[in-house]
Each structure stands twice: as C-alpha cells, then as structure tokens.
Amino acid sequence: MQRTIFTTPIVNTLLRSFSIGFLKLTGWRVEGALPAHAARSVLIAAPHTSNWDLPYTLMVAFTLRLNIRWMGKQSLFRAPFGGVMRWLGGISVNREQSTNLVAASAHAIRAADGPFQLIVPPEGTRSKTRYWKTGFYYIAREAQVPIVMAYMDYERKLSGLGPLFEPTGDVDADMATIKAFYAPFKGKNATQFESTD
User: Fold this and answer.
1) Which helix (H) or strand (E) holds 25?
2) What's the whole-model pTM score?
3) C-alpha distances in angstroms, 117 versus 22, 47, 70, 81?
4) For the segment 13-37, what is each residue's pLDDT rounded down to a tens digit?
C-alpha cells in the first residue's frame, strides 16, 4: 500500500506533536478514541463546508493516532500537487464518471494489511446541499466494517469521533438516525450544512 504522511515514522511523530500543540493553543478540543475492532472502518466527515476542513481533519487524525485515507475531487490531484495530496492520504475521485467506487473502496479496506480508516464526506461537496450521498454507507456494508460518526464543530471548536454505527440494511431509517446525530454540529460555513431533508 502507498506510504502516506501517517505511515512515515519520523514525520508522523513530529506532526502529531505539532497538531496537539496547535489545536490546544487555538482552543480546539478533540474527543473520543477509535475502538480496536474499528481499526478498519468508514469515517463520516461532516459537516464539510470549507477547504479548512482538510488541515483540521489531518491534525485531528494525528492527535487520535488514526491512519486515514480521504476522498477528494480529481482536480486536487493534478500536477504539481498530486503526489503531495496522495501522500496526505488522498484518493482521487472523478465525479464525472460512473465508476464502481463503492466496490473499489470496500476492496481497499479489506485488502489493507493494517489499520485503514476511509473518510467520506456524505455531502460530496463543500457547497450547500440538502441531500447526502449514501456511498459511505454502502462502502461500509460491502467491506463489512463499522461506520464511525466523526465530526467537526467550528462553533464550539470541538472535533472527534462519535459512536460507531452498524448499518442495518434499512437505508432510509439508518440515514435518518445518522443525520439526526449531526444536527447540532456547525461547519465553518454553517449555512451550507443541511442535516435534515
């Protein structure tokens, strides 16, 4: 598997120290921990309303000792920054093509030779949208791993890992439960986040 910033030993140690210090100095609190049986899992990234979400997510991941991969639009991976984005854990997604992203993502999780947390923003965009994509749900179902309800609340400067969610197969009911959990959280651009239909 490709080496990332999270699996580069000395860099990981230095950036973890930096992340803990920066978040503390700027008033952020990080809560929760990843249970051992969720070492391979799908993390919901919500609310996702700003480009600032990525650096904060990386710092929270270092603080919680996660080994994350995240999905980003294809344009982020163009030269000259493509290699850097992949090293940061990014996986390029072409929104214009109908590819079997669910199956490929589930396979990557199952095939990982160690911890692997795939972060998926359910809104699929930083822009305001009422409808959440269900890709994260089906990836978790196919990979047979739990969903971790990760959050970032800019209003309270609070981020971390919430409860695990085991999909039941009733997509509508499960999505309603998941979205209800996220209702109190405020993204950086709070008016762009919809957690209700």
Assistant:
1) helix 9-25
2) 0.87
3) 23, 18, 8, 23
4) 999 999 999 999 999 999 999 999 9
